[in-house]
Fold these 4 entries.
Entry 1:
Amino acid sequence: VDYGSADFAVGPMRYELILDNVGNRTIRDLRRAVTPTGMVIMNGGGSPGRVIGAVGSVLRAAVVNLIVRQKITFLPTTQSRDDLIAVAELVEAGTLRPVIDRTYPLVDTAMGLRDVEAGHVPGKVVITVR
């Protein structure tokens, strides 16, 4: 779903699975958009500006999982050396191509972080160090 042109959480459509890569929606919004037995997988921290960030999201998800049939889970955020080597090999082979939205010099890091926090970058933001 192109979140720039449509709001997946509004309207009658319900999904069996939502993978939230942006992290700017509430658990309530995400639950509303999945079927009664659907699953939400969160792949990001808490909403920008929240003091406890991802910890608050994890705690809320744990409570919701006790009450409803919908399942809310998080993608693991740890990487192993082997995982990183495998990804590097895919990039080198051209099988995996990272999408880079913008590149900022180190002095403009705050501007790049603001773009990411806004949740509207279609790719990664890269900070260059010279």
Entry 2:
Amino acid sequence: MRAVRYERYGPPEVIQLRQVETPAPADDEVLVKVQAASVNPLDWHSMRGLPYVARLQLGVRKPSRGMLGADLAGIVETVGGSVTGYRMGDEVFGTAVGTLAEYVAVPQGNLAPKPPSIGFGAAAAVPVAGLTALQSLRDKAGLESGHRVLVNGAAGGVGTFAVQIARSFGAEVTGVCSTPNVELVRSIGAYEVVDYNRDDFARTGHRYDLILDAVGNRPISDLRRALAPSGTLVMIGPGAGKWIGPMMLMLKAATWSRFVDQRMLWFLSQHSHDDLVALSDLIEAGKVSPVIDRTYRLAEVAEAIAYLEEGHARGKVVISV
């Protein structure tokens, strides 16, 4: 099968499309024929080996596995001996390691039936960004109806899901984005849109019960200024710096939270069959719709990641396999 691989850290040019052996599913795994995948910031961070602390897991001098991709939508090819609920021909979506390939073996708990109303490309845009938005808002921050929510980075992959999910919970949502994306963010349900080229949300005087920072480009002191006295800040951005990245955000958040009533948290999503089903239900109910910026072929993954790395993608960048 064809699969994306990289043997050294560096720019998108290190990415190769190679012929590799098709994986055999373990007893609790499902072999999926991938129809579409998508790329995430995780991919270009892994490709570059940044922050450097991540190389303790990725491989210190060179990538130990060299696979990219975490989202997929496809068709079940075969299943392991202990798998229940899936059979050959089922259409599924979910998360795995190395999904930028023609086939991938996926733990059955990482999958759910594909939402029937959308195609494979749209379904592949959902898992990582959708799970991050849902879990950070609902579980980490305790989102409730009537909350005033601000999403910093509202036009991005996670941001477009966060705006719609918060709105579906009955929140009053403000989205922060650049000038070209104002109408997009308004169209997906934002009650108010702040164009950061014209206004600074941290200095408008408005206070929010919940802030989801999907960018990581503002000091915590600025974010606190826009947060209600007992509000919650959830940070999912990668953080600045090549050495420890989000670990500095985690440390600062933990330190601040000890001395003030505001909660400041850093969040990383988890694989979840049940939450994939919840996202599918929101899609089928017409409350959430994946926003897709561009679609690339598998042979164009390097270009796709280069585009994503620029930081101006509107919604998700999808790979058609």
Entry 3:
Amino acid sequence: MLNSLRARLGLSARSFRVVSAYYLSYIALGMVSPALGPALPFLAERTGVSLDVASGLFSAKALGFMLGSFATGRALERLRPHGVIQVALLVMALSMLTLALTPKFTLLLLVLFVAGFFTAWQDVGSNVLLVWQLKEKVTPFLTGLHFIWGFGAMVTPLIIVQLQLRTGALLAPFALIAMFVAANALLYVRLPSPAPLQATKVQAAPLPLRPLLVFMAMLFLAGTMEMVIGGFVFTYLLRTELSTAQVAGGVTSTFYTAVTCTRLVAAFLLLRFSSQTVLQAALGLIIGTVTILLALSPSLPVVWIAVLLCGIGEATLFPLSLALAPQYLTAVGRATSLMFVGASVGALTMPLVIGRLFETATVGPQVIWYYTLIGATLYAFCLLILRITPKGMEFSAPTPQAANSN
């Protein structure tokens, strides 16, 4: 069965094993990334701080992720790449256990900073190494990688809430998550790391500024648009009195379900259509949906459909930004690290900006739709800039030896 699947994917036995390790590790990442959200009320109660103060844990993690993103590219190019992933997974697992046991809020801030730093190693590293391994075949697999993240993200809230209610503590759910994350480090034992796409001299060359800034902006916009709808639509529905809390939770779930399922469908669409074509269709869907929503009187059915369509549109923006980058930025490791810095800056700043505008009388809850419309338009402008930007490289044709490894 596995051999049949491998043949249909066009992968060698070695590449199939490597890609499988990245996918399983990305499920682990999906379990760690959203774990703080459902645990936040319990952590605030245990450490004796208000929920408002406890939300600073998100900032500590985002700051760690941003600094970790800076470091990942250099680490992948100077150390054994799969060793970098192993260290990241083990530290992430240890962070989960420490998070469940630490009674002091200041120590929690430190733990979340460290967790964010090494989460970046695993997140950025998996994306870079998948490009190194698959080269010109990478685009559908990169979209699939971000799809598989959703499995971990969907089960984590259930694990944390249910086990905490049963045991009265966070140790059981976080220990279960930590064991799964740590077990993934074993996948890389005696698994050869892929070689960088370029020679050392090319890796050390300065990155072209224009495409670098464009891709940093694309990840900033893709990440923040997803965050703004996913993070604020629940509050939007309550503030506008369009639904109850239970229904608003269902609308939020619809958004993430649409994102996850669309990434699976997109992995197959990308076998027939170019990344640019898929991105243009996605942006057209978002811009058209939000424009119609703003023109109509708000109602629950209209908002629910708009959230679904925006989830479908936004699903491909982040992974396809990463898939396009190697054509313009030759040093893939350093370039991807800096692109993730752009996403991290968005995670640090935009919740504060949107939250403040959300409370104003002049803008109010509609800010989530204004920002989504502006963000999608700016992303489309970034694509236009790329069309007139010379490509730094095409994926080089593999040598006979390399061809056999794929």
Entry 4:
Amino acid sequence: MLTRGAALLIAASMAAALPAAESLRPTLRTSDSKPAIALDAQVPKRFGDWREDSSMIPILPDAGLQATLDTAYSQVLARTYINSRRQRVMLSIAYGNDQSSEATAVHRPEFCYSAQGFDVEDAGGATLGLAKAPLRVQRLIGKMATRFEPITYWITLDETATLPGLSRKMQQLRYGMRGLIADGMIVRVSTVGLPATAAFQLQDSFVADLSAAVPAPVRSRYFGS
């Protein structure tokens, strides 16, 4: 048991450390010094062989989860695209200007799809050879009744593409130690009606076309650099 003197010493040490802790708390947002993100304007409705298909809406969260997303993110975009071969890809992007905590993890497909009643399987990772820089992505398979939905997603912090886990936490720490609050987004594409291999190949082609179509000044914010 601590003596009264030892307890007082610990309390005094903690009090003395508070100003230092406050001084280390990140205060500068990376988004304040860069072109603003505007998902609806910067993600084209038509590019390459793709155009928006308003007849099919991607899976949307229930009201409870949507309320959480509205708190964690400042912008959310959900569209379906179709190409000349009548193949469809669903795109969902959620952007927030504060990615300094794990609060934004609620939008990860592992959780978002599970909350909608899907069984979600890990299908491994992959690296897409985009024109400007390789992009590391996570693959999943979502299943519910007869619906089979292969999913590809990635996360960005500022201009760095990353994945959930240690890599993302280390990136958050690096920004925090520099007094910065990184913005970022989670980008998800998925396909219904194709086997996994064909679906992922189509998604890879879609992501490459989208990368080329997003305006150059903000491209690294969507795909990393």
